Records
---
Amino acid sequence: MSAQDQISAAARATARDATFARPKFVLIAAGWLVLASLPFWAGAYNIATIRDVLLFGLFALSLDFLWGRTGILSFGHAAFFGLGAYGMAIVTIKLGLDPASASLLGLLGGTGLAMLAALVVGYFLIFSGVRGTYLTIVTLALTVIAQHIAIGWSEVTGGDSGLIGVPPLTFELFGWRYALSDPSQFYWFVLLLASIILLVLWRVLSGRYGHILTAIEDNELRARTIGHHTDRHLLTVFVVSAGIAGLAGAIYATGTGFVAPDMIGLMLSTEVIMWVAVGGRGTLVGPFIGAFVVWWLQQKISSIDTKLWPMFIGLFFIAMVFLFPNGVMSLGERGRQLRARLWRRA
Amino acid sequence: MEQGVTLILNSLTLISILVLVSLGLAIIFGLMNVINLAHGEFVTIGAYTLALTQAMGGNYWVALVMAPLIGAMFGLLIEKGMIRYLYEKPTSIILATWGLGMVLQQGLQLVFGAAPQRVSSPISGAVDILGASYPAYRLMLIGFSILIILACYALLRFTRFGLDIRAVIQDRSMASALGIDTERVNARAFALGAALAAIAGVLIAPLTVVIAQMGINYLARSFFVVIVGGIGGVGGVVAGSTLVGGLEGFMNYHLPVTVSQALVLVAAIVIVRFRPRGLVPA
Amino acid sequence: MTTGTPLLDARALQRRFGGLTAIRDVSLTVERQETKCIIGPNGAGKSTFLNLLCGTLRPTAGQIVFDGIDVTGMPLHRIARIGIARKFQVPSVFGRLTVRQNLSVAEIGTAHDGKAPNTVAEILHKLDLTEIADRSAGDLAHGQKQWLEIGMAMMTNPKLLLLDEPTAGMTVEESLKTAELLRTACADIAVIAIEHDMRFVRALDCHTVVLHQGALIAEGPFADIEANPMVRDVYLGRQ
Ligand SMILES: Nc1ncnc2c1ncn2[C@@H]1O[C@H](COP(=O)(O)OP(=O)(O)OP(=O)(O)O)[C@@H](O)[C@H]1O
Ligand SMILES: [Mg+2]
């Protein structure tokens, strides 16, 4: 290593420290602590609500991993979330297993089902060179049909009313059985899981693998000519993303205790796009923030009139495209850039 | 025999509907590479035109003439007011047209209420065909679709406008170098696509439940049609509709609707693997 | 592996685009560590020819054998991994990544012939990019992008490097620097370079191939090519 390399390596190290010292990270850490302490000062109802929002955040994270890092917009991500939820419900309710194995099998089955669906769809499409908007409409069709099946195949899915009676997550280790029926403990479990997945994704994506994905989004042909099997990379991301969505769905179902067709349908698919867009595509933490903000907005707006909410979403999508294509959070960033540019010009 | 005839006619009805809805979508998609997720709402607008006309005492045929005009107007408005600014950003178009679709749905629901609209077909009764008695209105629908397909084919094949459209689909920059006003072609094609969908809306309305959200069912399927059939031509749309509609029509007979729809999705995806540019590429 | 046979053996390649035959019956061999230049007027089919060699286009007829392996129709990433690298005519670096990240993404870790694989630091150093290593590649000047792209190609440890107009749009000094960089960084690999700049070709003074309307019309040392009246007619005469 030359002296110059050492200097620039040192410079990068300080740059990295500076990253951690930036106010953004302080804010995120503070937010996390507030979340972690929630069970000490909030009521059971609020704990359960925030837990569900966190799971939605995890679901949004899965979409952000796909959309933010490869540019592929899935318009049917709720299909994967819903497959997870329905998988969990069907395994725990219909198979008559003991609670611990049912939970475990439900988690694996739900997540696995979502990944399998993504693998099949993704293999056929991605390996045929289907990209971009084409993929988007196929995922859209996927969620529409998934919802039809959830409604129509009532012997298995419970039809319109769904399935009720999903038991809480139960683990068994060396004969010691533990059910996550206590709201606080279940909440912490969810927070921990979401944090771990977030950290792992962040870690992986800020390294070379993340750069490869960025490169593929930037110029896929070029990425191929330097030796990357881009089809395989994209398929991997698609399947992992579906798996995280399915996991979030499976756990969500154990929290609410039931599944219903709106967990697999178009509306939820639309909303998750909104969460990511509000939080900032490609930011990983943003989707959680987006899920919180939108959930809060939804409370406010629906309390005036529930019919207003879909109208609001529609207007939001239009506004987003024209006013803040990089997410609501980017509005501040854009303001800063604009100011900097003006300042530089002056 | 009797059952077979009914089955075939049912499939033909479905195919006709799919062709009508998908034609506009295919032209728009092929021409501008634009995925218009509000396309289903053009169908809805057509159906509501019929409902409103009949509610005001007008008859079916008036609505059938009015609907394409109203559809075209909406199409033009949307192209001029929104799509035009987003041609370079396909994902943005998806998001914006999706939002627009939701706004239109909610708008219709606010104005007309959530209950299904009442519509009636202009002709009733049944016709005997090879021993099977089949509703006359459905036969009319099939006949009408064939007329429209032929008209579209002639329009694309023999008129100046059709020539321009095909030129732009082939090579946009070349077409504009040859002096074709591609922006105008875009706008007109968009209006045409919307008009076709609105006609489909009128024709479908008596056979289905007319509600603000009815468009989405046709949207997803017509995208299959376009993907499977290939973009940019009448032939592709007919091939795609025949496959998707035929498959669904025949499977509906033996299987639950949901299963047959899922199988159609699977078929569409598998076909894309082996014929990425559709059955009848442009 | 197989010494004696040429590294690259392109046999009777043909490529049609609809009615247009962009490449007709072109054969070319390149030995290990040999440098060849392709010249020819605009639209002669030079870029198309390189596209065939690196797999971004498939030939409609003919065969490409590289290092004893038939690579005709092989997937792009496999061609890259067995040792053919490409610099595009339009600089195509990954604009959202830094220079260093661009190089690291291109590091696929397969060295050939028992050589040690190139490392990011080495290539940064060889191509004189160390100082701008942490700049975003999208912000680089035109010349720097071209050098970075050569660097990325080198990171894949190629046996054959295909360069499409490496000095296009460069100032005279930049062109000279490029020639120099190629001499040092790519000394031990085979290179095929498309060039318009005759000074550059003259400086390289290598075996030169002339394409015209998709066909190979002359081939030989640059001095001979320069003296060839037919080549002067179709190409040099216009300069
Ligand atoms: N993808 C394509 N589709 C249709 N025609 C093409 C395509 N690529 C190249 N051509 C045509 O093939 C011919 C050769 O083009 P090519 O880019 O190989 O020329 P070139 O020698 O590299 O020219 P230049 O010096 O301008 O770079 C041209 O007539 C071009 O229009
Ligand atoms: Mg060229």
Note: The pocket of adenosine-5'-triphosphate (ligand 1) is lined by residues C 17, 20, 22, 40, 42-48, 89 (CB under 6 Å).
---
Amino acid sequence: MQDIGLKSKNLSVFYGEKQAVKDISLDFAARQVTALIGPSGCGKSTFLRSLNRMNDLIPGAKITGEVWIGDQNILNPKTDVVLLRQKIGMVWQRPNPFHKSIYENIAFGPRYHGIRDKRKLDELVEQSLRKAALWEETKDRLHKSALALSGGQQQRLCIARSIAVKPDIILMDEPASALDPVSTAKIEELIAELKQEYCIIIVTHNMHQAARVSDRTAFFLMGELVEFDKTDKMFTNPANQQTSDYISGRFG
Amino acid sequence: MKARTVDKIATGIIMAVAGFIILLLAGFLAYIIVRGFGHISYDFLTSPPQTFREGGGIGPQLFNSLFLLVLTMMITIPLGLGAGIYMSEYAKPGRLTDFIRLTVEVLSSFPSIVVGLFGLLVFVNVFGFGFSLFSGALALTVFNLPLMVRITEQGLRSVPREQKEASLALGISKWKTITSVMLPMAVPVILTGTILASGRVFGEAAALLFTAGMSSPRLDFGNWNPLDPTSPLNPFRPAETLAVHIWKINSEGIAPDARDIAAGASAVLVMTVLAFNLIARWLGRLVYRKFTSSR
């Protein structure tokens, strides 16, 4: 278990002329959950996607600033982005398991990174599924299609898939917003479990969720960071009027 | 009230047009098969053609058509997949990419006789491949490449972005992402394109007249050494395909049963294309299931 967190320094993102994220510096500690909240279009998802350079895929997107993981600057053009992404797992809004079997969904990454031994892979698959609280439900149908799982199960599979490659950090982009309340509760439990090992950064629209799962909260507005503090303090006694208005539901 | 009437009329017209097309197709198929079916026999399918006497078959031609199909696809599929992957995943949007796309479109609208003449000039004469299956396969590649490229590109673009991102986020390289995640999902689309391309290979005559030639040397079906001139597997021998043979006996056949042979050969051609379609679809589903382990 490593104590690796993530740090952004003066991070800005442009889509063509438009600046979507403005000069954001944030520290994400290891073994903590940080929630990014804010109204739609405030740049929180864009910010999140910059942290593992997923925005490289979008034509016209330009990122400036620095993102440090350990002693490596992610945004340095010389950084090997493929290797880097192994250290940063990601979970999307809608579950997106590969169109493969449950087993293959998990084994795909580790096998690519050099684990060929069948027994080791089996072990890793079981371990990852257990960590994602999915083992009991899937152990009898590991080689069936992942698409036959329910939405909540698929999302937990996606989490299992990302922890199978042993990341230090997990990015979650509204991981429960497409799920029913029961599945949502399971995902939240899982997040609480996972933070003992990983640095988790979660984008959410759900204030209650942010309050429940996170240690720290960052409030974004119009591409700017308005406030960043311990979650307890943000939700009980925010320093900024806008934060207070947003959290109490007066806008957004 | 009025909008509903218009809706009903429009629905009616669309149904009528669809019905007409289906009827046309069914009638066409039925005509060809009914006319030619009686002439098809094991002997007809396996024996060589006769120039003056009755009872000639289409054995070598049928084999040539199938072999040319395989040969063409061996060239077209790798090139088409490669170019399609480039266009969809690597090419940056811009003038050059647009130009390449335009070129590909223009290539696909060339009349086949022009492609045939081009093949005669370039493959047969300049490159010195002579009238041969190989020249024919190259000429047909000129035709099929645009289709293959476009279909591959479409297939890859139809893969949801999250699938690609999920793979990249695991620290998997772009190439591995394309081959292991995206291509398997694109198989059904790409397969449809391949079938269409194959249908064209089977039915094409004009482009082959000047490239694969209009005659078959005496073939020895016991000789499978691809370097021997009498071997059916030799790609550098001239080869008359089924479609070319139909054209030839229809226009200059002097055997007394030329009409029947043409009808029988047409029926065989149509049925082979149909069978090929069905088998390819079945195979594609199998491949898709194997890759995606869905049932």
Note: Chain A touches chain B at residues 52, 54, 57, 59, 82-90, 92, 94, 96-101, 104, 108-109, 112-113, 143-145, 147-148, 158, 161-162, 165 (CB under 8 Å).
---
Amino acid sequence: METLQFLADGFASALQWQNLLFAFVGVLIGTAVGVLPGIGPMSGVALLIPVTATLTSGQDPASAATSAIILLAGVYYGAMYGGSTTSILLNTPGESSSVVTTLDGYQMARQGRAGAALSIAAIGSFVAGIVALVALVLLAKPLSEVAIKFGPAEYFSLMLLGLAAVSGLAGKSMTKALIMTVLGLLLATIGMDNVSGVARFTYNVPVLYSGLEFLTVAVGLFALGEVFKTVLHRDYGGGEIIKVGRVLPTRQDLKESAGPIARGSLLGFFIGVLPGAGATLASFFSYIMEKKLSRNPEKFGKGAIAGVAAPESANNAASGGAMIPLLTLGIPGSGTTAILMGALIMYNVQPGPLLFEDHPGVAWGLIASMFIGNLMLLVLNMPLVKVFAKIIETPPKYLLPIIIAISVFGVYAVQYTTFDLLLLIGCGIAGYFLAQNDYPLAPLVLGLVLGPMIENNMRRALTASNGDFSIFLTKPISLAFLLVAVLWLLVPLLLKLRGKKVIINEEA
Amino acid sequence: MNRIFDRYAGVAFLLVGAAFVWESRKIGESSYGSNVGPDIFPMGLGILLILLSARLLYETLRGRMTDAASGEKPRLDYKRFGILVGAALLYAYFLEDIGYVLGTFLFLLLGFQVIERGRWLVSLLVSALFSFGVYYLFVQVLEGTLPGFPSWMNLG
């Protein structure tokens, strides 16, 4: 019952007019970001952190954090939805989690059923969002009660597990993914050590004392990296956009997609909860599953509505599921949730089991606003589908320099140093070349965010054990986490050795 | 290109790892009572990075030629990229001197024209609107601070 009370409080806070506005703006911008070529959910969220920071600057810290996270989460799932629009209308997925949607979505559009495909994607996303939300409400409290019993050793191992999971599944080469993870952790050590107060790797450069700002690195790597890629590859889009036509799905469409939406939501949610898996895998698996279950699998790839409904529900459910490890354990399972976590930390709100005790307003406000956000997404998208389809036509000529300008403004407005601006551009260039050569960026950001916490917990555990490293192996829970972490890295390797193709998570 | 990049990247990461190990040896002594000082974490990670880059170098050396040969590389547009990065660097570096409005206006105008020549009027309008708009919203409405105009213009 206590949970319901908290949920009611959460709704009360999410229904305040400014938070409604934030949710609305977040969902709107998110959908636009998802539709626009060149910015995905990760760079969208990263870009908007500084903007929200200034928007919420007038409020007291706790409610500022609530409003900010409501907006950013809105951007997150708005972008997940928006990505499907380009898949269907242009045959180019806005982000990797809607790659599968192109298979049937584009075919449907060519048959003149673009509107039905778009609206079924919106309905599927909505249902999936609600399923994920109910599960989140049910699981959040018990999970955080388990997690609260963890000591530093358990935490250290759990975070290693999170890193291992993301590195094991990200990108084509695990070596490269691990290198990026370790690099992120190393970059996080620059600056003042928050246990002993010793300055590390700063060489008396004042701007380095506070460390490399996560926001600068994330915006640079993702947003600027994408801009540079578009410019270098002359990737200005310009495909032919198919007319939307009739928006509402027919009764037959709804009947055919009810099952896929339900199955996709559940599957997507469970995949989303697993760290490292995430939306892309969820959409792949649900598509494969529907094809296996279908009575006429030959229709898939030729415009089957189930082939749109299932993956679109799955990827939205997965992004809801990914919130669970973030909020209850403080372990982001993907690049985007790592960025959300960084944003929370900027507001002095530490995600993790204590979140529900220390900042119940933030946690439950976010959960409630996800419900409202999903509703808005549906209400917004059904009538506005045609408007969003127009956004695709924004000329990149104006879009690209403006993305750079927004990045510069955002970073400067939060950091006030020229150093951060130069770091931003440097990260953009590095981000392009690394991503281009299959070095996944999400593990780096994850390492950067988790680095200080991993180090803290490791040192607290080691101080308690007088420097004896075996403490991580003698505590049973910690040992279990470490074993799972090792397995997570080894199993894909073994599968690869045996010549099996491993599905990897490109978006991470 | 991939393998060559990997080789250079491997060497670079190896050096970064080595640098972190080397430099973290200097932090150790200043730690207080605990025998787990601030040097252990970066040093361990540095060693890990060295091992991983060695592994990467090993992979590229015995690498499969198929990766490098497959597919034709698209000709990259280094000219536009170079100008844009150069402009962004200048913009970032001189932002505090020439002020936000002027800097952003010039950067956007140049950026628009670099990507596609022509339609000056639209470019002028969009850059002016963006730079003034953001400045006005942020400084006047949200009461943030930005270096507005260069000091010799006496505009605030």
Note: Helices of chain B lie at 2-24, 40-61, 65-69, 78-98, 100-115, 120-141.
